[in-house]
C-alpha cells in the first residue's frame, strides 16, 4: 500500500518550525543589540571611574609626600623599635596551665 502524505499537516508543521526559528532569530538579534548598547555604557562608566580613581591617587600622593619622620615626631609619634618586647607563646601557655591547675 502506498502511503499518502497529507499536505495540510506537513505545511502547518513546517510553518510552525519557520515561525519558531524566526522568533528565535529576532530574540537573539535583539539580545545582541542590547548587549552591545550595555557594553558601551559600561565602558563609559569604567572611564569615569578610572578618572575618579586617578584624581584620588594624585591627592593621596600629594598628602603622603608631606609626611616624613620629622613631621611624625612633631605630631607626637615616637620610634618604638627600641622598647618593643614580645611575649613567648610557650611562656603564656605554661602560665595558663599553671593557673588552671592551681584550683585543683
Based on the model shown, name its key terms.
3 helices, mainly alpha, 104 residues
Describe this protein's structure.
The chain starts with 6 loop residues before the first helix and ends with a helix. The chain has one domain. The protein is an all-alpha fold. The model has no long low-confidence stretch (mean pLDDT 82).
Order of helices and strands: HHH
Q: Which class do the helix and strand fractions yield?
A: mainly alpha
Q: What average pLDDT do the residues reach?
A: 82
Report the count of strand segments: 0
Helix content: over 70%
Label the overall shape. elongated
Entry summary:
With 104 residues, the protein is mainly alpha-helical. The chain is 76% helix and 0% strand.
How are the elements arranged and paired?
Layout: H1 7-65, H2 69-74, H3 89-102
